[in-house]
Structure formats: C-alpha cells, structure tokens
Amino acid sequence: MPDSSTTSPSIPSDIAELQEKFTTNISKNQLQILPQLVATGLPGIEFLSEWLQQQRGTEPTIVGGAVYQALYQSELPAAKDFLDREFPTGIVPLTSSVGIDYTQLQQLLAQRNFQAADKLTNEKLCELAGADAVQRKWIYFTEVEQLPTIDLHTIDALWLFHSEGKFGFSVQREMWLGMSKNWDKLWPKIGWKEGNNWTRYPGSFTWDLTAPRGHLPLSNQLRGVRAISSLLSHPAWEK
C-alpha cells in the first residue's frame, strides 16, 4: 500500500491527509480522526488494516482497540476478511491461568453488547471464585483475593480496549483512588447513584459509550462495598 505520508494518484489528497494525521498524532486525536477514515470507505479500511497489522506483537492500546472495533463493525468484506485472517480472537490475548475461555466475552464486547458482556463478566468472576460462587451467582469479598491476576488482567483489558478506555476495573480503581477511596463521591461520578437513590438495574443503567467513565462493569452494592473494595484493591492492579 502507498506510504500514507505521500499523495498517490490512487489515494485522493484529503484521504492521504487523514492518513498522515492519524499516523503522526497523539492517541486522543487519533480517536477523533478514526471515524473520518472509516467514512472514506475501502481506502480507509485498508489503511486501518495495515496500521493494525503493524501493531501486532505489541501491547494492546486504546487506539488499537478502537481501530479493531471500527473494522469489526464495518460492513465491507475486506474488513471482515482481514480480521478473520489476522485477528480471529481479537487484539487482546485471551489468557487464563485456570483454563477459562473468554471468547464469548470478547465477542460480546466487540459487538458492544455491554449489557450481555456485563452479565457474562459476573459469571466469569464466579467461575474464577469456585463452584459455591457459581451456584449463588455472586462472589464473597473473601473470595476476591484468590482471583487469578492473569484472568483479571484479561477481563479488564477486554473491557478497556473495547470501550475506548472508558470501562474496566482498572478505570474504576483509578477513579476511586483519585477520590481518596470515597465511595459516596464515586457512585454518582460513575452513574451508579443519584442523590439517595441507587440506579435501578437494568433499565436505568447506560449500556453504550455515552455512559459516564467507569460506569461498567457493574458490581452489586446491595450487599455492601466489601466485594468491590477487595476487587479494586486486588494485587493485580499493582503490577
């Protein structure tokens, strides 16, 4: 494919300019340019495919996740063929230290079916915690510290890179620490509480990227804060 920094007869100058800006800009600006590239059709899809291919072997990034998302949602056959061939399981390694399969979670998040992904995330946490948690369908705070670091990283990365950096346990932890671990400040900031009223599940939660930062995944606060406190204090986030 032609160098994105030069204008070619096969690439209109405005598209070449977008490619140049995307290649040379910082992440925040890249996210703003991305929809414009997608709107150019096949030239933009081919450019983004090549860009994502060049990221192979490096740590996933917010921009990489957004590019993957754009290709995943594209109706152009070239995008689907590229992802099926080069990234059949996504850009996040689906690693587990206990043999748990995160393929369905990856697919739901790639589809941005955040409500179903949230439900499955809770199921995976219960699966990690053991048979008793699976049966009761929620985890005790005493079980949280036993959750494998590798698996928590996988779950968090899937949420983070399929939400342009808005969702995930690590995002919630960052906000929580930034508020000196004050839950009363955190709840309204992430949209879990308004005044004295808890946000009602599921209809009052926001299941798309218009949600507040840190809105997802959810944690049931009816049993208190000990479970989420243990989760956000897990050693996984210190590594």
TrEMBL record:
Q: Where is the GUN4 N-terminal ARM-like repeat domain?
A: 12-88
InterPro entries assigned to the protein according to its UniProt record, in alphabetical order? ARM-type_fold (IPR016024), GUN4-like (IPR008629), GUN4-like_sf (IPR037215), GUN4_N (IPR032192)
- The residue ranges of the GUN4-like domain are 96-235
Q: Which domain of life is it from?
A: Bacteria
Gene3D superfamilies, from UniProt? 1.25.40.620, Gun4-like (1.10.10.1770)
Which Pfam family is one of those matched by this entry? GUN4_N
Which GO molecular function, any one, fits this protein according to its record? tetrapyrrole binding
* This protein's GO CC annotations: outer membrane-bounded periplasmic space
According to UniProt, the name of this protein is GUN4 domain-containing protein
